[in-house]
Each structure stands twice: as structure tokens, then as C-alpha cells.
Write a structure and sequence with these properties.
With 133 residues, the protein is mostly helical. The chain has helices at residues 2-20, 25-32, 41-60, 82-98, 102-107, 114-132. The longest helix is centred in the middle third of the chain and has 20 residues, at 41-60. The chain has 6 helices and no strands. Helix 2 (25-32) crosses helix 4 (82-98). It has one domain (2-132). The chain crosses the membrane at residues 41-61, 82-100, 106-130. This is YeeE/YedE family protein. Keywords: Membrane, Transmembrane, Transmembrane helix.
């Protein structure tokens, strides 16, 4: 049941990305183009995600345990370190150059293009490198 719930959550996330247009890298790059044809769509999608998460966490964490698990798995680390800052920097550079972040990139695999393939290969290389460092 836990795996099914994970699949359904991923499916909802992917559908949300597709419906909102966030699988289109031009939409993301349009948001980053503040000096040109700025597209504010991304800020509304991010705002909706923040509000949903804010409310959702407060409702869910009132429970003593998750519906399909033994205990909540929440992050415990609170300090900033070089690995976190370096990873966030590389993520931002990759997102700004390609217009894709991991979720939309994976959701867009059906329409694979050369830039998307390059981004996915770079992402896999980054995961591999992060495990080695």
C-alpha cells in the first residue's frame, strides 16, 4: 500500500506539472527573463505549492503517524554546509541553463529532445558524483 500511495503522489505531482505548463522549459526560462518577455506563471505555481505544503504539513503532523508508515521521516539537519550550498548552486545553474528541474525533466521523457537528454545525463552524472564526494 505504501508503494501504491507513493506512485499516486508522484502521478499527481507529474499531472500538476503538466497541467500548469511547467514541463515546458520555455515557461521557466520566460520566468527568468525579467528584462524581456517575463512570464509570471512559475511564481503562481510555486506559490500554490508553498500554500499547499504549509497547510498540508500542519494537518498531517497532527497525526501520531502516517497512514501508510510507522513514523514520519522529517529532516533533522538544520545547518548550511558546503555540500548543500554547492548542490543548490549547481541545481540553480542547471535549471537556469536548461529550463528543466528534475521533476519536469522526468515528466517530459516521452517527448525526449537533445537538450532534455543532455540535462538528464548531466543530472545522472551529478547524482553519481555526489555519491563519490
Amino acid at each position: 500500500m505504501k508503494a501504491l500511495m507513493g506512485y499516486l503522489a508522484g502521478l499527481m505531482f507529474g499531472l500538476g506539472l503538466a497541467i500548469s505548463g511547467m514541463t515546458d522549459p520555455a515557461r521557466v526560462l520566460g520566468f527568468l527573463d525579467i528584462a524581456g518577455e517575463w512570464d509570471p506563471t512559475l511564481i503562481f505555481v510555486l506559490g500554490g505549492a508553498v500554500v499547499t505544503t504549509f497547510i498540508g504539513y500542519r494537518l498531517v503532523l497532527r497525526r501520531s503517524s502516517p497512514l501508510f508508515g510507522d513514523a514520519f521521516q522529517l529532516p533533522t539537519k538544520r545547518e548550511l554546509d558546503g555540500r548543500l550550498l554547492g548542490g543548490a548552486t549547481l541545481f540553480g545553474i542547471g535549471w537556469g541553463l536548461s529550463g528543466y528541474c528534475p521533476g519536469p525533466a522526468i515528466a517530459s521523457i516521452a517527448g525526449l529532445t537533445a537538450p532534455l537528454a543532455a540535462m538528464l545525463l548531466a543530472m545522472i552524472g551529478g547524482w553519481w558524483l555526489a555519491r563519490r564526494v
